[in-house]
Amino acid sequence: YTHVTAFLGRLRHALFRSSQHKWTKFRMCELADLHICLQMLDEASTGISINNIVFRKPNIFYRSDASEFGIGGYNLISGSAWRFELPTHLRLRSSLISLEFLASVITISVDILENKIFPEDCILSQSDSTLAIGWLRKSNFSDDEDSIIQMIIARHLATLILQSKACLYSQWFPGGENSVADSLSRDFHLNDSNLSKFLLSSIPNQVPFELRIKRLPNKISCWLTSMLQNLPEKEQWSKEPQRSYL
């Protein structure tokens, strides 16, 4: 709901323009904000559960990570995990922090798409990136070229949480405890089965019960690649992939 409050602030700028010139035309970014605000009003018209606006103990736990050539995440309770290797032509189009923010949101999206998040569920998203975790509660990004990807992801996250009727918390934790997600975002030279066995033998204390690595749903991977393709290509990829420290 903090996202919606910030979006309303952006819409006030449009109203200010109309007061100056007696009329105004909504920009595409403002129309996107308006759409989310209307969703919020629709939810509020039938009442908002107090369980979604008070401090609660989470019942769903996610961890995620990103590298320059891939992203990944998993559910600590169910053991459901995903990973996605970025095509070479889409690498280096966004910052690593943006990819870590994206990984956090996609980890939530996967379970919402599979109807595994229910009204009044309390989600805790963990990452070793302080900025990415802070961005889960931020929506006052600008729509300029440098921040447009963060704004798109923030709008997507706000829509997901509104539709799921759940609440979301975020928390930083040390990178040394995020080895599973780090490996998911880097070790694409191993297939899913071999990576699962490798993680179980290497860091059994960090691997969730019944770890299952699966392919990212097409609906999410298409959204992800389409968004990155619309970003300008800043430089050519010329590096060898850096695997996880494991």
Account of the 3D structure:
It contains eight helices and six strands; from the N terminus they run ααβββαβααβααβα. 44% of the residues lie in helices and 15% in strands. The longest helix is centred in the first third of the chain and has 20 residues. With 246 residues, the protein is of the alpha/beta class. It has a six-stranded mixed β-sheet with strand order 5-4-1-2-3-6, with helices on both faces.
Topology:
Elements: H1 2-21, H2 28-45, E1 60-67, E2 70-75, E3 80-85, H3 96-113, E4 122-127, H4 130-135, H5 148-164, E5 167-172, H6 179-184, H7 192-202, E6 212-215, H8 218-229
Parallel strand pairs: 1-4, 3-6, 4-5
Antiparallel strand pairs: 1-2, 2-3
Question: TL;DR?
Answer:
44% of the residues lie in helices and 15% in strands. With 246 residues, it is of the alpha/beta class. The radius of gyration is 19 Å and the shape is globular.
The count of β-strands is: 6
Major sheet: order of its strands? Answer: 5-4-1-2-3-6
Report on the biggest sheet. Answer: 6 strands, mixed
Individual helix count: 8
Approximate helicity band: 40-55%
Average pLDDT, all residues:
87
Note the main attributes of this structure.
8 helices, 44% helix, alpha/beta, 246 residues, six-stranded mixed β-sheet
